[in-house]
Amino acid sequence: MLDSVNGVIEKVIHANGKGFIIFSVRNASGATVVTGNDAGLYEGDYVECEGTWEWRNGNRQLKARKIMPQIPTTTDAILAYIASGRVPGISTKLAGRLVQAFGKDTLHVIEHEPDKLKKVPGFGKAKIAALTEGLAKELGHRGVMLFLNGFGLSQRHINKIFDTFGLAAVEKIKENPYTLFWEIKGIGFKIADKIAEQCGQAADDPYRILVGLLTAIDNAVHSRGDTCFTPQALAQQAHKLFARTARPLDRATILMAMDLVKSSDFVRVDTIDSVEMIWPKELYYAEKKIAKDLFRLHNSTGKIASADALKKAIAVAEQALGITLSPMQHQAVTTALASPVSVITGGPGTGKTTIMRVLLLAQHELFHVASEQVVLCAPTGKASKRLQASTQMEAMTLHKVLKYSPEDNAFTYHEDNKLPCEVAVTDESSMIDTQLACSFFQAIPSGVKLVIVGDYDQLASVGAGKVLRDIIESDTIPVVRLDRVFRTGEDSQIKVNAHLINKGQMITLDNKSKQNDFWFIKSSTPEAIADEIVSLIPRLVKHYGYDPLDDIQVLTPMRMGPVGMHALNARLQRLLNPNAGTGIRCTQDDVEVQFCAGDKVIHIKNNNELKVVNGDTGKIISVDLKERKLIARFEDVQVEYAYADLDELRLCYAMTIHKSQGSEYPCVLMPMTLAHDIMLSINLVYTGMTRARQNMLMVGQLAAVERALTRRATDLRSTGLLHFLKQLWANQQAYSQPKQTITA
Questions:
Q1: What CATH number has the domain spanning 176-264?
Q2: Does 3.40.50.360 match the CATH number of domain 285-482?
Q3: Does residue 689 have a pLDDT over 80?
């Protein structure tokens, strides 16, 4: 139940020019401070506000979800309304003359009988025209606001609709409510469908079913990671979507309307093994483009060396680095040096980093490739920094390599403007989604040696697709699989259990051993698991001397619930930050979050303007409550966040396992509960476990681990890349072009 405050805006305290406003409202009960989205407000406006109460500096104020300016009806309100400044040149004195002449009918006269205004001193032809035009627009705006208010929209959405359609908004919505779905960012099927219902549109209206099917596609792409669907699978997803509305549809009705979506320009239809499949248009072309570019690179003219030259170069690199490769590692380097495109895959500790170091040095020995002609990259900031530290060469995120331009929403390097390089190595490739892979591969010039490195068994990318897995399973690109652990601590229980999990086998427990680095602490309910995790952190700090912010990371399968990311972050914030409760409040995933000075945070989107990338972690160093902004320090940069930028920031005392990919931590705590059943999989548990370098603590139910062993998350994704790769290699036999041979 929302709280409400009605009254006249006494004073605008603060307006940031970006849609946020703070003002005081006065009524018979006194003055109340209100914060919210600006609805084109002026001092003197009568407003009705709905929201929730919050406390600031010991005073109660309303955090408004909706602010609705009303058309004034009393003479005092009409006077304040006309003299507010919304019509240039109409002073309080002139407004007073109008109200004195026409009283409560003033607005009616201005709108419908403007000729009567000539009788009022000071109102000539120009002044009357300015007044009638200005107030007609303003009254129309309020009429639209009142119409939209009946649909339960937030103020932010109402403002967006009016900014897009202006005074024609009512007509547009009545004509086709789903116009909002197409035209207004942030308004999805749920809101548009509610408005359509209130406007009397039929439940089986073809346009409704089309929008529902497209929404089901979008939901499956973003929640499941699918890139394509059978009509039956899509109908099932749409059936679930409609079932959550007030006007459900049966599966047969949806299937009958499937031609609507198949004939639209939003999708493409093709077959995989004679089975009809439906793709979102952009993902269809992205998967086909990945296949074509890999085929192009695989068959392009490039430098190769004789077997003797390869062997000698590798030996030189080994000697320079003071290491000796195992036979499998030697084969991996040889394959990468001898192939235009290759894949190196293996779990943690199997030598992928060692292979890259030898590969890069041998590449230079063979072909004299300058360091500036080598592109080293990874999907996230943390992964690229780890790659740079391990190779001692510059490494960047894929977005930075391709030079993403926020203004153009495009990459500087692309198909028609290739990257200036001779060697390209991408690490943590399991994290690369279909769209990003397409952008990267098409920007690589023919003749460049491409090495794709990653862990086949990790979770697939957050975005749609399973690019690395599809490439490996296609048997079209040379692949070297590493399966022996070389990293120090080969008998580590973390590594032993990670490999057991990866094989689908149950973990082994030895909680009594003093040399152990893996513990499973049994706990039953999600609430009890959360309590245990919170109590463990001070004990770990005391026993191991860990820094609770830098050395300990809580990883969880889900965002919501008692052991989800948000709930754990709130509890750990109170435990670890003495400034908890004194920060900027905002809403994320429908949960109130507070950012305070001293908080551990993570940036979740690449943002060239702020000079931070997805995965950068840092600490909030100052908070300005009045201006609702904060400053966070990351490793390389200090960033100021306005309130509107906070949707790119998250607390990260706890983070999702997906978000942790590409990172490592001295100590990891991970809840395991059947409450997270929908997310549990071999890949998820394996990925979480392999983030820990020194100590791994699982807290919860062994039954949850057993449940995870019954499925692999990547098996659940439906994609087309594997098919397109096989199809291309089968239809267009790989051809051989003359290659330059380097001899010793």
A1: 1.10.10.2220
A2: no
A3: yes
